[in-house]
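Subject: design request, 188 residues
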């Protein structure tokens, strides 16, 4: 009897995900974002607002807006990006989803009253998993083509204080930049 209880306790400890919920795709998120551009003194930071919503069991819509700025030798540099797209999620287990998405991308950079903008697209694949009811881990690879192409690898973690509210961090690395994010999420 003691061996059975001990074995069950160990099994429950190492299979906490068995009681976890699936990742939420109905959400809105507010973020502090900081970028470090390689081989420059540029480190723009600012805020981001993003969200997604499931429109069927597997298809979701998503949108993202970032407003970053930096001051270099008294010159203000502003960078705004907008992304809107559609994705598909596939539940590989009750707690883990694989996903793929395609998005329209828009970027606008301005300094000294001069503004340059361009648009393009992005493709992404990744995974999100609720390791426990309170902790989510995710990762993705995205290809972005706006004037030039770039590939970004991102890893993120999120802690849910309640079923609806979470705080998270993420780190993304691209060919010429690193991106750090701290966020607050409301899942509905």
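Subject: RE: design request

Done. Sequence follows.
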């Amino acid at each position: 009897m003691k061996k059975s209880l001990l074995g069950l306790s160990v099994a429950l400890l190492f299979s906490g995900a068995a009681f976890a919920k699936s990742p939420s795709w109905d959400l809105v998120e507010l973020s502090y974002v900081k970028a470090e551009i390689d081989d420059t003194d540029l480190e723009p930071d600012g805020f981001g607002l993003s969200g997604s919503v499931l429109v069927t069991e597997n298809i979701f819509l998503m949108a993202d807006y970032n407003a970053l700025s930096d001051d270099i030798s008294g010159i203000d540099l502003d960078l705004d990006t907008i992304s809107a797209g559609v994705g598909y999620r596939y539940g590989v287990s009750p707690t883990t989803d694989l996903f793929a998405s395609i998005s329209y991308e828009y970027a606008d950079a301005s300094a000294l009253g001069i503004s340059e903008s361009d648009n393009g697209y992005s493709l992404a694949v990744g995974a999100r998993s609720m390791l426990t009811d309170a902790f989510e881990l995710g990762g993705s690879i995205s290809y972005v083509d706006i004037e030039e192409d770039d590939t970004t690898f991102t890893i993120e973690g999120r802690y849910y204080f309640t079923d609806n509210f979470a705080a998270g961090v993420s780190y993304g690395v691209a060919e010429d930049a690193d991106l750090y994010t701290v966020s607050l999420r409301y899942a509905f």
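Residues 8-18 have pLDDT under 50 and may be disordered.
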